[in-house]
Automatic annotation (TrEMBL):
Location of the Enoyl reductase (ER) domain: 11-322
Taxonomic superkingdom: Bacteria
PANTHER family according to UniProt: QUINONE OXIDOREDUCTASE PIG3-RELATED, QUINONE OXIDOREDUCTASE-RELATED
Name assigned to this protein: Quinone oxidoreductase
GO cellular component: cytosol
UniProt keyword terms in alphabetical order: NADP, Oxidoreductase
GO terms for MF: mRNA 3'-UTR AU-rich region binding; NADPH binding; quinone reductase (NADPH) activity
Protein source organism: Nitratireductor aestuarii
Gene3D superfamilies, alphabetized: Medium-chain alcohol dehydrogenases, catalytic domain, NAD(P)-binding Rossmann-like Domain
């Protein structure tokens, strides 16, 4: 038996209960992992609350790192004892052990700790597909990223700075503004006290941004569109404040023939080659010290509800992990 967080209904943090469950053996194409650290993400809250439908009973969690205990039939690229990490969109991470499709797992280099790997694999791959695939950031680009002091934001800022962009962020407190500035952001706007559209206009001398990355949603729309120059791209990849309201596509023409996309990481890493390329580029920039991964908060697995509540109430900054 192993301990895992289970929910039998959707709702608030109180629906997350620590229980003992029987651990299954890995089937064909699967691996069994003893988890050393588990990542915490907003998608976990979306699933817990019912915003993203799940089949109950359900164990949340999208990323983790640990050691392979067993491999199923047909698995050749992993063996017991391998250091690995994974990200998956179907939950299951909030557990001492888990079985997962080997196609979602990657090898972790020796110079990356389990805590770093669990804290960054989903967030880091998110930063990767935003910066290198959805809109390929080039030297000289001016970009805006909302929630700059969040887990993805702190990785994103360092990476975008390294790529030669002028990186503008938004944050909700002086402390978070300073944190973002320490992680690659050249300019940080306090969205609680300033009009971020006007500040972007001031910072850019009226030229505005090539691309806006927005995981906030309702509260930052349509202001994010107003921060774009003609032919700019609005990348909506989350909705921490609520969904973006419906709008007419003619609005994009009116604001400068803008592009809009709602990308999902798992479409960008759907096969082994794409996943290995993404993870390789991520581990490379982290291993070289270009992107530093710092775990700002740790909670016991049993305290997953409190961890999620602190994240939802924006009492955390940067990356947070659960320790089984």
């Amino acid at each position: 038996m192993v301990k895992a967080i289970r929910m039998t209904e959707t709702g608030g943090p109180e629906v997350l209960q620590l229980v003992e469950v029987e651990q299954q053996k890995p089937g064909p194409g699967e691996v069994l992992i003893e988890q050393k650290a588990i990542g915490l993400n907003f998608i976990d809250i979306y699933m817990r609350s019912g915003l993203y439908p799940v089949n109950l009973p359900f164990t949340p969690g999208s990323e983790g790192a640990g050691v392979v205990l067993e491999v199923g039939e047909g698995v050749e690229i992993f063996k017991p004892g391998d250091r690995v990490a994974y990200c998956a969109g179907n939950g299951g991470a909030y557990s001492e052990q888990r079985v997962i499709n080997a196609g979602k797992v990657v090898h972790v280099p020796d110079n990356i700790s389990f805590e770093q790997a669990a804290a960054m694999i989903l967030k880091g791959l998110t930063a990767w597909f935003l910066l290198r695939r959805t809109y390929r950031v080039q030297p000289g680009d001016t970009i805006l990223y909302h929630a700059a002091a969040g887990g993805v934001g702190l990785l994103f800022g360092q990476w975008a700075n390294h790529l030669g962009a002028t990186v503008i962020g938004t944050a909700g407190s002086p402390e978070k503004m300073e944190l973002a500035k320490a992680h690659g952001f050249h300019h940080v706007i306090n969205y609680r006290e300033e009009n971020f559209v006007e500040r972007v206009r001031e910072i850019t001398g009226g030229k505005m941004c090539n691309v806006v990355y927005d995981s906030v949603g309702k509260d930052t729309f349509p202001g994010s569109l107003d921060c774009l120059r003609p032919l700019g791209m609005f990348v909506s990849f989350g909705q921490s404040s609520g969904v973006v309201p419906p709008f007419s596509v003619s609005l994009l023409q009116q604001k400068g023939s803008l592009f809009v996309t709602r990308p999902v990481l798992f479409h960008y890493i759907a096969d082994r080659e794409a996943l290995d390329t993404a993870a390789g580029e991520l581990f490379d920039v982290v291993g070289k010290g270009i992107v530093k991964v710092v775990v700002n908060q740790q909670y016991k697995l049993a305290d997953a509800g409190k961890a999620q509540d602190d994240l939802a109430q924006r009492r955390t900054s940067g990356t947070t992990i659960l320790i089984p």
